[in-house]
Design goal:
Blueprint: H1 2-6, H2 22-46, E1 51-56, H3 62-72, H4 76-92, E2 106-112, E3 119-121, E4 126-132, H5 141-157, H6 167-175
Parallel strand pairs: 1-2, 2-4
Antiparallel strand pairs: 3-4
Length: 176
């Protein structure tokens, strides 16, 4: 019994081989840095300023499938909307304070078979950009989608007196 007390608790002495190798330390640090970068990116994406919803009402049509694959599944439609918003804000509000911008709480991109490129609004600063399925037909569908979203965002960001401004004036400014 006394012999058991004299034995060390750890049967193997610590050697240099028992320390973690430099490759495991580097991989752990890389993993932590990756998680940090993803967190910063996610925080940046979530602070864009308004809620976005993408609705594909084109169903199983060719345009609906293409939209689902290239724009909806990988959030390219959301990134296109934010890119268009940055472009329009840079043109319309480059010298203004953020308080002077038209308030927007939510934007919905909706792909429809029979839609015209129209922006609908509600009283809660929410807007719907209706996109025609025909913009996805052709070789330059990316450019056509960006152009349609740019026109929609322009209509959203313009102060139009809640629809009381002359339509031709708003259309001219949007096309500019």
């Amino acid at each position: 019994e006394d012999g058991d007390l004299l034995r060390p608790l750890v049967s193997h002495p610590a050697t240099a081989a028992s320390f973690p190798s430099s490759s495991t330390i580097v991989s752990r640090i890389s993993f932590v840095l990756f998680i940090g970068a993803v967190s910063v990116w996610a925080n940046h994406e979530s602070s864009k300023g308004f809620a976005v919803k993408v609705i594909n009402e084109a169903g199983d049509t060719a345009a609906g499938k293409r939209f689902r694959l290239f724009y909806e599944a990988n959030d390219e439609a959301v990134r296109t909307l934010f890119r268009a918003t940055a472009i329009v804000d840079g043109i319309l509000y480059s010298d203004l304070d953020s308080r002077d911008r038209k308030p927007v709480s939510a934007v919905t991109l909706k792909l429809k078979d029979d839609a015209a490129d129209v922006v609908e609004s509600d009283l809660n600063d929410g807007f719907v950009i209706n996109l025609r399925t025909s913009i996805l037909e052709g070789e330059r569908s990316d450019r056509a989608l960006l152009s349609a979203v740019l026109r929609g965002v322009s209509r959203i960001r313009l102060w139009d007196g809640r629809g009381r401004a002359p339509r031709t004036l708003v259309a001219g400014i949007v096309e500019y």
